Amino acid sequence: MTKTITVFRGDGIGPEITDAVLDILKAANAPLDFEIFDVGAAVYEKTGSFIPQEGFDSFEKNKVLLKSPITTPIGSGFKSLNVTLRQKYDLWANIRPALSNPALPTRFENVDLVTFRENTEDLYIGEEIEIDADTVHAIKKITRKASERIIKEAFEYALKNGRHKVTCIHKANILKKSDGMFLRIFEEIAKSYPQIEADSMIVDAACMNLVMHPERFDVLVMPNLYGDILSDLTSGLIGGLGLLPSCNRGDSYAMYEAVHGSAPDIAGQNLANPSALLLSACMMLDDLHEEESASKIRNALDQVFQEGKVLTKDLGGQASTSEFVAEIKSRL
């Protein structure tokens, strides 16, 4: 049965990598139809809105969104569009798997870990209070409801996917009430999963250990801010954000996206690497129970990596986006 999904093309390199991924999905005969919308800065200049209402309506109807990077102006009063989408649709679980590929040059081998990031609260609620001209307080919000559901999701994922350990990342030694509650809830829930090893680590120690011994980690779960930082760190272990897929999932909606930036410096030059968005689309296919299509695409991408002759510049090659896409399609 064909599933209709909503697609946001983004800005910067977003339209290029979106078109590349849709081309590959069609070539793989993935049973999908697409409702495609231009979003981002160029749309804002024309309409006064970064995302047209028709785009929101489409997502609310289809429940599944494939999204390219959208540029949010920094320090100019605009709330992050990613944060807006996550909060508007209660996309409370951000899942980012980092899997190294032996064919690509990185400093680490056999990296295979998954970050579960609480996606709706913490400092990302964006509540700041100006005490005086020289003092600002930012509100860090942690609730039992949000903590329980992301921690349970991490353990359930470990159980269903043959993972052996879940690690809670926190700063409870300093933030004794907020992170302390998150850690206590983790320890409570861990008791219901005796077959899964459970441990915890202070966030600064986790950063050190990740870059020294990433093989010691399996599934990681943490509040929002640490998840944002550490998932980018894990991408560095496997070759960068251009290889890291991401899913934002709630009870009713799911958004799949490339988490790298919109790279306006190379936009329109046919140089962008679509792999992160393509791998995010594969996560989407898995969740839509179209594992055969996802596997076909991943295998084709792996063959291109292993051959090593047609790679984009960020992967150590000289190929254009269109050449890279054509090579993937030839392996399907």
UniProtKB/TrEMBL annotation:
The keyword Repeat does not apply. GO terms for molecular function: isocitrate dehydrogenase (NAD+) activity; magnesium ion binding; NAD binding. GO terms for biological process: isocitrate metabolic process; tricarboxylic acid cycle. Gene3D superfamilies: Isopropylmalate Dehydrogenase. Keywords: Oxidoreductase. Coiled coil: none annotated. It holds the Pfam family Iso_dh. Residues 4-328 form the Isopropylmalate dehydrogenase-like domain. InterPro entries: IsoCit/isopropylmalate_DH_CS, IsoPropMal-DH-like_dom. PANTHER family: DECARBOXYLATING DEHYDROGENASES-ISOCITRATE, ISOPROPYLMALATE, TARTRATE (PTHR11835), ISOCITRATE DEHYDROGENASE [NAD] SUBUNIT ALPHA, MITOCHONDRIAL (PTHR11835:SF34). Belongs to the isocitrate and isopropylmalate dehydrogenases family. This is Isocitrate dehydrogenase. It comes from Dubosiella newyorkensis.
